[in-house]
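Two entries, shown back to back:
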Amino acid sequence: MKFSAALFASIVLGSGAADAFTAGVRRTAKVSPVSLKETISEELGTPCEDECAMDSFPNMPASVHPGVVTGQAMLDLLDHAKENGYAIPAVNCVSSSGINACLEAARKNDAPIIIQFSSGGSQFYGGKGLSNKNYAAAIAGAISGAFHVRTMAEQYGVPVILHTDHCAKKLLPWVDGLLAASERYHAKHGEPLFSSHMIDLSEEPIEENIDICKDYLTRFAKIGMLLEMELGITGGEEDGVNNEDVAIEDLYSKPEEIFQVYDALTPISNMFTVAAAFGNVHGVYSPGNVRLEPKILTRAQAYISEKLGDKAPADKKPVSFVFHGGSGSDVSDIQEAIGYGVIKMNIDTDTQWSYWEGIKNFEKKWHDYLQGQIGNPEGADKPNKKYYDPREALRAAETNTVNRLDQCFADLKCTNILGLGAAEEADNVLGPRRGGLPV
């Protein structure tokens, strides 16, 4: 994969919010061929040993490899999830520290992971000191995060789907900029920069939702990129989008609507997933306040299979579903939904808390050492640098997040998937002069 500072600059500074999307010829469900020239590690000359150097995994389809997967490799990974009854955790990230925690957790659980950026998270990744006029900061931030994921995913030796989260109609220029970057990246490397994007037009009329998604999927299909679309509304509040007062009936998708989407998108490409609503709510709420109805998904699968007749897949699960608003959900509901064709579950609220909780607990443990640069219970002249070193609190946040993600992987039945076995403990404990953490 040809990767250079010049390429990065051309992608970030190229066409800004990008060209308007164009219509194309409808095509059958094919994925554009991918012929990678080099891995990121080969291009940059970074060390690549053990899992990083593997071409594939013992328990996975041969196309699935360490690093970011796109095109057919991504489809093979998602199909493997559906066939083997697990879903892949999709974690929203706003920093390189959060990304590294996700990669560490994936390797610890011997599993794939989806790393995704929201528009607000992308802007934060780029820096709040940058202007976001015409979504410039959000575009540059997401691209910067994408290159971090691409560089480090190989190092951790796990397959990663690189995704962007909710994109409402007003945010389409943001995705346009990222799509243009992926088209330029594809021209040089044979694959898109991102694996997939979500277009969330659930608040628009269904006909408009489908028409716009068709236009985007036509463009996505040319470079082997997957579209995630939302049907019905996920309640609650996330990243500045507030659906706490939405009508109850809008929280539940109808089988006929899901078939309408399937029927419209399938002739263009099979590279799409559906975030159907079955009572999902963003955020965490007290037990009993969220009423999930996973059986909506199996009723939709049965309805569409009946419509397809002999063309229905053998498992009678023609649609790959995405579970939004899963934080705080009952594990039995989550696993029931997986049985009905859910292959991805979004995680944000729980990992936001785990990251903060790690910092909070670190401050509580070392409180008396964090009140000044000098002076602690060991003496008035004792220095505190090794305690307020930012790496300490951030590492505490990462460790706590890895532990929380362990539960997510287990809930989604996404453990011991790759066949790598237990990860070796990292050799980074030799002290601050040799790169380890002081405390």
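entry 2 starts here
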Amino acid sequence: MANSAAFLTSTFNSTSQPSIFEVTAQQSLAQTLGPACRHILKVAATSQPEHCGLLIKVQDELLLLANAALQLHYLKVYNSSFTENFYGLERLAENSQQLAIRPSFLCLVLVPYLRRKLETLFQKCREDQADGVQPSNPIIARLRSIFLSSFPSLHCLSQAVNIAFLLSFSLRKSKYHNLLSWLVGVSLVYVTPDRQKEKENRKLDAIQGSRGLRHLAITSVSTAARILTFSLEVGSFFLQFLDWWYAQGGVGGASTLHEDGQTIPKPPPTITGKHDKYRASIKKQTFQWLLSPPTGKKKSPLFKIFGKKSNKQTKFSQFPELPARGGTCPICQRRRRGDTVLASSGLVFCYACIVQHLRKEARCPVTRLPAKEEQLIRIFTQQ
């Protein structure tokens, strides 16, 4: 479908250089595939947290391997990346008839992976600096300061250079559409119908001429590529439907999934007073699963806290009690500064207190529900 449209577009052009719309469309598609695959992994981990929860932790590495296999197959067979071939484009080397696969492979696979890792590291370092968390090693602290000050400038510079290349490409002043294509020395051109047939024959020869594991790898990647292409052409609305479905709470809307694959139950009602009063206020028919003895190997996440009967109250005494006065932080027992609510429990703490506690314990200090920094919501009042 996309290739036919590209052939039709190229018929009315006097040059083989594609338009800016096709170039930006394939770039946008390449940037969308990563988040879409992460969303699919999140759906799988939500439905099967016991078996697929580990996928969330290693999602970047899994996508790196999948992207490497996909791009290597398309570079060898079609002389283009997956998204470039989807829009009927191919790569043309500047000083050679044969495309150099290694530089293009590094730019398509390794560069996006490193960019995402650097952006994640920058966000973490900036949050640590804002919270006053200082590394124990002064050399690391100095390197973090240099990284925080230089990364935004370098990122802005690279984006400005890419915009300049894209503008020059749209005005037909340059055949390179971004900085990486200029560094590698490749340009994008339309794929003619004859070239497309030649590439399809090349793919069939590669499949028929291979044996053993090589045949299995080529067949698997080719089949996965066809499925992905079909999904993009016919089922693009499916990802939006999944996003809407799980934004409503998923099946039953009874839980929330963290990045580490843990399924978090819905928070209990508002608690007042000590833990004994809280336990007495829980309705039996609503939280019977909480107070019932564990069945098999699966235990309720809050059974050890509220369901286990014991004469010793030392476990409950370790938890901070809710302050009697309003406006007091349950952790430091002082007047709150920077009111912040924890979504998993609905309690309000000092921002500095709850951030430091979550980084150490990853649980609510009062209800002991699993929690992370992403569940913190700052409260801003007129006072």
